Amino acid sequence: MTAGIPGTGIGGLYYLLLVLWMPFHESWLMLTGRGRPGRWKVVFTQGGIAAGILAALWGEAFVLKTLIYWVTFSAPASTYWRTLGLTAGMMLVPAVATWLAIAILGLVVVSANLLRFWIRWTGRTIQN
Q1: Is 44 exposed, middle or buried (0-12, 13-18, 19+ CB in 10 A)?
Q2: pTM for the full model?
Q3: What's the rounded Cα separation, in Å, for the pair 9 and 113?
Q4: 3-state secondary structure 82-103
């Protein structure tokens, strides 16, 4: 078992997607007359935290990728370090896995909101 980078798991991606959704939700509340101007402060605060998380992750990936490529191309040919560096360099580009995880979590967010709207529409209550 390996430990991942904090904030890059399902919970971190879910948080980022919810922060991305917040301005749209608040705009809808303002258009329907149910919003309050003080809530935008929370939207901007959460957006700043999310931007900080993304910047830190991008910076960490950049440093790791640069370091791995430096080790890879500084090592003599056909050595353990060159092979390890090439393998690690390819593993730092999980674009397909990242977009698939974001798509799945987006589906979870949309499903949760659709379920919430359906419960309101039918007038049902959730009982424990």
Answers
A1: exposed
A2: 0.61
A3: 21
A4: HHHHHHHHHHCCCHHHHHHHHH
